[in-house]
Amino acid sequence: MPAGCRRSKAMNELTVTLYQQDIRWNDPESNRLHAEEAIANTVASAAGTDIFVVPETFTTGFGNHMADLAEEPEGPTLQWARRMAAQYNLLFVGTWIVREGDQCFNRMHLVYPDGTFGTYDKAHTFRVSGESDIIARGTSRKVYEYKGWRIKPAICYDLRFPMWLRNEPAVRADLRGIGARDIDAEIATMPDLLSYDILLVSANWPGSRHQAWTTLIKARAIENLCYVVGCNRCGTDEHGSDYHGDSAIIDYKGYYVVEDTTYGPHVINSTLHKDKLDTFRRRWPFFLDFD
User: Fold this and answer.
1) How much is the pLDDT for 3?
2) Residue 121, beta-bridge partner list
């Protein structure tokens, strides 16, 4: 990267923590308490963290009961998340069910230390389980920024839809047809080549479809030239569905940066490096040939 585009160490490195939670059914207060303990222990450790991620619907579990426990847009879980983000100086990321008017949404919240927050509503509600009967579909793609990193949120079933998650090139269309040597010189001066750096997925993905989860998080990383952060729950829910966890961070080449090997409640974290991501994108600009 040219000297004029060099990033500070703080912007270059980002530590991400995943809490692979065994969610207690219909017990928001208990689930928040367990998440709070995990956050406190993580921040107190030598590693610390910049971002803390919990699984999909971490306050209630995933099922037909979710709408009954829907919160107002600025209800108790958001107020709790604001307190966590401010107290521990981190970006808190999690989903819970929110009611707006006569509709409920499976909404991911990205809560910043200053109390502001961004949201993303799950676009692909899982019709096989009946989620689509009680939860409205989101319609907007979102990208958020934290500490110089651009983060694209996604929720569970979204992972199966690559066009919805496509990383958009920042390179002008008229540059995509020029020769290799010329394009190398052109992109060397660009600070950002794609619309996001991290695809962040919060999930309730059952162990019976374990192979799909592990394959798709790698595929989305490779095709989008990005890190994928996949936080999944563990344990057994009230329907008898088992969850293996398999939470992981995948790099832009499809390799594990870190992965869960416990299949139980667990915190995993790792530090991501923006300079390595940028170098790979410039060396292998596959995005110039995206359809």
Assistant:
1) 31
2) 107
pLDDT recorded at residue 181: 61
In contact, 240 and 212? CB cutoff 8 Å: no
Packing angle, helices 28-44 and 76-88, rounded to 10 = 10
Query: Residue 197: exposed, middle, or buried by beta-carbon count in 10 A (0-12, 13-18, 19+)?
Result: buried
pLDDT at 190: 76
Q: Specify the DSSP element, H or E, that contains 258.
A: strand 256-259
* Contact between residue 98 and residue 104 where contact means Cβ atoms under 8 Å apart: yes
| Active site positions, annotated | 56, 122, 156
Task: Match 């992972």 to its residue by tokens.
Answer: 159
pLDDT at position 173: 59
Q: Residue 5: is its pLDDT beyond 60? A: no
Burial class (CB in 10 A: 0-12, 13-18, 19+), 94: buried
Q: What is the mean pLDDT of the chain?
A: 92
**Residue ranges of domains in the chain, CATH in brackets:** 3-289 (3.60.110.10)
Q: In the structure encoding, which two tokens stand for residue 75, read together?
A: 């209800």
pLDDT value at position 207? 96
Q: Taking the CA atoms of the chain, what radius of gyration do you get in angstroms?
A: 19
**Tens digits of residue pLDDT in 85-120:** 999 999 999 999 999 999 999 999 999 999 999 999
At residue 210, the 3 state secondary structure works out as helix
For 118, what's the count of Cα atoms within 13 Å in the CB-facing half-sphere?
17
Q: What is the side-by-side strand order in the sheet with 144-146?
A: 144-146, 149-155, 198-203, 227-232, 248-250, 256-259
Please list, residue by residue across 124-145, b when 16 or more beta carbons sit within 10 angstroms of its beta carbon and e when fewer do. bbbeebebeebbbebeebbbbe
Element (H, E) at 19: strand 13-20
